[in-house]
């Protein structure tokens, strides 16, 4: 899954991004409230991690904007304040969870996945198409019940296509899901990832195929 991290401490943001990347969770990081308002409209996120002390205001003030863009999106507040009053303020402002700094990356990962499983924006946690099954929370895939080992970007592309199986996914939508906001990509990078993904699915007998839709994007469907 892909999450939005709103954090202005660059060292902490980098540590979170690196730790979650190893756990198959993609992270887009922004450092201000204005950047957060832009990001939530441009990409699809499963959870938001939100710091309170941001350069342009209290992070809690952006929660209504996040929910207006994506109704029901889970929000975890990250803060150095551990007092009960601060936690109550966060929860009263609409946050779903609260994590005081410093924190364990394992605990953060567990909280992210727990919130994603309960999130109303994820209608189902597992989707099966043909012989392929993908877990949308843990971002893992299996074929015939056996694990399909894929790099994270290929998994993100597969997730986006499986969620819209039988429908064309626009190229710009795939780019946003796979690369997020913080990466510059070559024009053919997405095509390279899709090509590798198609080969791996065919080799394993997944019972699905990914077809290009000229001038629009890609479509995943079951094979005849």
TrEMBL record:
<keyword id="KW-0238">DNA-binding</keyword>
<feature type="DNA-binding region" description="OmpR/PhoB-type">
    <location>
        <begin position="124"/>
        <end position="222"/>
    </location>
</feature>
<keyword id="KW-0597">Phosphoprotein</keyword>
<dbReference type="GO" id="GO:0005829">
    <property type="term" value="C:cytosol"/>
</dbReference>
<dbReference type="Pfam" id="PF00072">
    <property type="entry name" value="Response_reg"/>
</dbReference>
<dbReference type="InterPro" id="IPR001867">
    <property type="entry name" value="OmpR/PhoB-type_DNA-bd"/>
</dbReference>
<dbReference type="InterPro" id="IPR039420">
    <property type="entry name" value="WalR-like"/>
</dbReference>
<protein>
    <submittedName>
        <fullName>DNA-binding response regulator</fullName>
    </submittedName>
</protein>
<dbReference type="Pfam" id="PF00486">
    <property type="entry name" value="Trans_reg_C"/>
</dbReference>
<dbReference type="InterPro" id="IPR001789">
    <property type="entry name" value="Sig_transdc_resp-reg_receiver"/>
</dbReference>
<dbReference type="GO" id="GO:0032993">
    <property type="term" value="C:protein-DNA complex"/>
</dbReference>
<dbReference type="GO" id="GO:0000156">
    <property type="term" value="F:phosphorelay response regulator activity"/>
</dbReference>
<dbReference type="InterPro" id="IPR011006">
    <property type="entry name" value="CheY-like_superfamily"/>
</dbReference>
<feature type="domain" description="OmpR/PhoB-type">
    <location>
        <begin position="124"/>
        <end position="222"/>
    </location>
</feature>
<dbReference type="GO" id="GO:0006355">
    <property type="term" value="P:regulation of DNA-templated transcription"/>
</dbReference>
<feature type="domain" description="Response regulatory">
    <location>
        <begin position="2"/>
        <end position="116"/>
    </location>
</feature>
<dbReference type="InterPro" id="IPR036388">
    <property type="entry name" value="WH-like_DNA-bd_sf"/>
</dbReference>
<feature type="modified residue" description="4-aspartylphosphate">
    <location>
        <position position="51"/>
    </location>
</feature>
<dbReference type="GO" id="GO:0000976">
    <property type="term" value="F:transcription cis-regulatory region binding"/>
</dbReference>
